[in-house]
Input
Amino acid sequence: MRRKKLFIILLGLLVAYGGWLTTESLRFQTHQGTVPDHPAEIVGAYHIHTTCSDGRKTVAEVARIASHENLDFIIVTDHGSPNRESFGSQGWKEGVLVLAGTEISSNRGHLVGLGFEKSDKNFSSQAEEAVYQLRSQGGFSIIAHPYSKTSWTWGETIDYGGIEIISADGVLKRNIVSSIPYWPTLLVRPAFFLCKILKRPEKNLKKWDSLCRHHPVYGYYSVDAHLLYGLLFSAIRVHIPLSKPLQGDFTEASRQVYGSLAKGNFFNAIDAAAQSEGFRFWMEVGTQAIPMGSSASLEPSTVLHVLSPPGIKAHIRVIRDGQTCHQSDHETLSLEVAQPGIYRVEVYLRERTPLRQDVPWILSNPIFLKEKRHEQN
Output
């Protein structure tokens, strides 16, 4: 009799759990707004590992998955100093621009190098020296997963080109236990699972704002994919608004992508939660349009502009020097700017979504607005 009661109780709990999980996951759908006409905006995934290091699939297989997820480009970052095998795999594959950098194991942690020229010399294991070597070869550096996996040890402030704000692989590993109730959704609604376990990267954001006070540093949403490529490629993406469509020639196309990344003219989005295409952030200084990543001098006529993806309920926060200075629930925002500072934008979903309310759906890169210097007679 006791066994029967216990069985009935367990069965009831299982049914309740299944009903709750089904209701939660079925209420979620990727929100689709009105797709704007921006033919030059391209979408890609940054920080990918293949069988050239510790990934589960070959470069060709990864490119095929990226093509299926409608990505325009992917950036392979296999471990090495550099990883010459994956570097030699670059090119157009399955209609996807495949670029390759490398992830360097340095004395301070893992450092991603992108955009560098081919060389027979290895990069130094000293982080500061590796940064200078990358720059001398036309490349730039990004601090990988600074507070997870191999944590970064901070030394003197040097010209790092970027920092990872969200690292999906780190999130999955860090939340492996707390995410147990949502594991079954991996089989039927994997995007729901990933959105549900993402948490606000507070330490990363604060450190990013701190680094930007010394020199421009750009923020990245990283997939850090070793497996589950399809899920990650559909969920966490880098968007680049180009001035002209991506070129068919590999050399020219790679210059377009790396040129935008090196200058910070891109934004990040959790596209599993909602379509982010069409987001724009820029400043109008006199007759000039200043894009993300750029610096400008404050003028009396300076206006900050934000376009949130149309047709999706969202909340815009304008961040100046690490603090929220303006908020809006409208799709468009035009704000007169009277103070110099480092301005960036975070956008939060207000639709029904598994994303936590404090996780930025869209994260822009900063615009650095400086005090205008007055010429002395």
Notes: DSSP finds ten helices and 21 strands in the chain.
